[in-house]
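> example.struct
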């Protein structure tokens, strides 16, 4: 582990100014008194999986949704947190670096010290390996001073990002018991929060007093559902990447002779590429979810790109910018099947050198067709979650290579008479994830840190800190704690009436919703993006001035205030109860029964899973 982790930083002028920025808190978290309202018991996001999730998590499934309110927001089933006995809490990073992670820890620290100066916050140095080895540092204001509103995860660092095996879980429980921790806060994405759920279940089963809490921090933005509108770091990463893409766009139009193929880090889903396309307006963007839904083959994608090149050439334009997500390659049916075979060989401990000779005949033929550099990258050892190293697979170079070959073929056959096709490839990955976090990510992370402390103080185990209504100003944000099991499901991989969930319950990466309003906006502009150089230059992240508080376009377009909608529903139900008290007229009672029967029938149909449902995206 790096001995410099947690050491004071030497800050530049900009970093010092950012360190002085005080994140905003919604009214419910201002002060030491918070009211806690327990809502209804939760289920899983997929009704067909509820029984399976309940069986796998008997201790933590079905827990109630919890809201944190202003002290004067009294309601039934509400309790106030008044007394603040001292607590001990541990925190660790688990997952890829994401801008804003340090502010989660800062928020935890400030909330703990405001409640009781004797509270102790311990950071695990080196992520999960530090947790297993009991390697800690006490988080104090002096330690935090040069990490406030700063990028990276170098306050504590990270390692294998996994708490899954029996040995790992037991080591984590041993550490928490030995350190007498009241809470363990795990900062990460879908895999880390799935591990947090399992850890919480095991702790509850063995009567370990430590409450396990997850925090949605991942640059990819794929930890997204009814309760989580976006993740910490997504806004910053998209702003940095959008600036880089817009710079490339201007370079392309200036030279007028190159096509830029840009691959963006973002995991299996295409959220980063989607948001960046809306911010920078490249000529083409190919989303993995579109490819998976349409079942486009590799050569069909190549032909679509070449058709776009020809259409632009007809207007005398021999330049352009194409943006793709790093997970695109897994969305292509034949590539996905090939990668699954390779994955299975890895699981069976077949070495990288032996994998090509162990492939089935059709997979071997496809493997041989691919350029040598892609072959080498496809057989690399897997990530900690047993998935392919998508960041190491140069999909943009594969597309550029095949497009160039196809354009040569079209030229030779006389179908294309324009200039020679030339490409330049880029992968924007680590460039963005160490950036100074935007104001939005700084505020969001700090608020989540405060919520974590309220969760520990309330004695909740197996919950995630969440905020909804994020597109509005901070003083209108809704703070809550949501059971991790409510976000879990089991993927269905079979087609037809016999489709059943298989695998273990986890929190799955969320693909782009191709029925969403934000996607409709992108499709509406696609033709203009392709043929017109309608490039947009958002510039660098603004920390002050008119653009300082901009938020992701996909966040502001969608109506995602799920907790607000639950409040509206509860308000209507309360009004119905008031009207239908015993003594109301028979006509009113009959009208209510008829209406409720209709509502019940509609909701029954809507909540029933489709027998032919398949994942929109090829997730393991």
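> example.seq
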């Amino acid at each position: 582990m790096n001995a410099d982790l947690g050491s004071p930083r030497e800050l530049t002028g900009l970093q010092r100014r950012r360190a002085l920025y005080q994140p905003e808190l919604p009214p419910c978290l201002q002060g030491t008194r918070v009211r806690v309202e327990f809502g209804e018991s939760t289920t899983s996001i997929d009704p067909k999986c509820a029984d399976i999730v309940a069986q796998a998590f008997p201790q933590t499934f079905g827990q109630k949704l919890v809201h944190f309110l202003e002290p004067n927001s009294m309601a039934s089933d509400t309790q106030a947190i008044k007394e603040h006995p001292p607590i001990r809490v541990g925190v660790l990073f688990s997952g890829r670096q994401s801008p804003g992670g340090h502010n989660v820890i800062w928020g935890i620290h400030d909330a703990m010290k405001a409640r009781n100066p004797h509270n102790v916050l311990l950071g695990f140095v080196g992520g999960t390996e530090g947790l297993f080895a009991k390697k800690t540092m006490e988080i104090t204001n002096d330690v935090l001073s040069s990490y406030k509103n700063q990028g990276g995860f170098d306050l504590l660092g990270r390692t294998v990002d996994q708490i899954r095996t029996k040995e790992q879980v037991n080591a984590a429980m041993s550490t928490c018991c030995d350190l007498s921790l009241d809470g363990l806060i795990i900062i990460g994405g879908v895999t880390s929060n799935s591990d947090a759920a399992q850890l919480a279940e095991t702790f509850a089963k063995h009567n370990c007093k430590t409450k396990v809490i997850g925090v949605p921090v991942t640059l990819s933005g794929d930890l997204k559902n009814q309760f989580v509108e976006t993740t910490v770091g997504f806004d910053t990463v998209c702003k940095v990447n959008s600036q880089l893409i817009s710079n490339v766009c201007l370079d392309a139009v200036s030279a007028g002779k190159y096509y830029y193929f840009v691959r963006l880090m973002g995991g299996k889903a295409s959220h980063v590429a989607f948001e960046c396309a809306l911010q920078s307006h490249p000529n083409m963007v190919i989303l993995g979810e579109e490819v998976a839904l349409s079942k486009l083959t590799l050569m069909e994608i190549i032909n679509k790109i070449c058709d776009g090149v020809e259409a632009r050439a007809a207007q005398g334009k021999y330049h352009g910018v194409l943006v793709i997500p790093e997970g695109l390659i897994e969305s292509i049916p034949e590539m996905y099947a090939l990668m699954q075979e390779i994955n299975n060989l890895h699981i069976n401990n077949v070495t990288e050198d032996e994998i090509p000779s162990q492939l089935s005949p059709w997979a071997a033929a496809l493997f041989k067709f691919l350029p040598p550099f892609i072959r080498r990258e496809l057989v690399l050892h897997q990530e900690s979650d047993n998935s392919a190293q998508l960041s190491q697979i140069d999909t943009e170079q594969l597309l550029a290579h095949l497009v160039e070959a196809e354009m040569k073929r079209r030229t030779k056959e006389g179908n294309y008479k324009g200039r020679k096709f030339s490409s330049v490839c880029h992968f924007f990955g680590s460039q963005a994830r160490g950036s100074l976090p935007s104001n939005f990510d700084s505020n969001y992370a700090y608020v989540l840190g405060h919520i974590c402390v309220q969760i520990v103080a309330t004695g909740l185990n197996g919950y995630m800190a969440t905020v909804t209504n994020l597109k509005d100003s901070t003083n209108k944000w809704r703070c809550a704690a949501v059971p991790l099991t409510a976000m879990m499901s089991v993927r269905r991989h079979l087609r037809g009436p016999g489709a059943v969930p298989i695998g273990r319950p986890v929190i799955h990466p969320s693909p782009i919703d191709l029925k969403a309003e934000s996607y409709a906006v992108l499709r509406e502009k696609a033709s203009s993006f392709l043929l017109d150089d309608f490039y947009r230059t958002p510039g660098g992240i603004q920390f002050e001035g008119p653009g300082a508080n901009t938020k992701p376009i996909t966040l502001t377009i969608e109506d995602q205030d799920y907790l607000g909608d639950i409040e509206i529903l509860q308000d209507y139900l309360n009004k119905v109860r008031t009207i239908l008290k015993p003594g109301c007229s028979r006509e009113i009672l009959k009208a209510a029964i008829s209406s409720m029967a209709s509502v019940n029938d509609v909701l029954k149909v809507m909540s029933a899973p489709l027998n032919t449902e398949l994942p929109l995206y090829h997730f393991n």
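> remarks
The radius of gyration is 26 Å.
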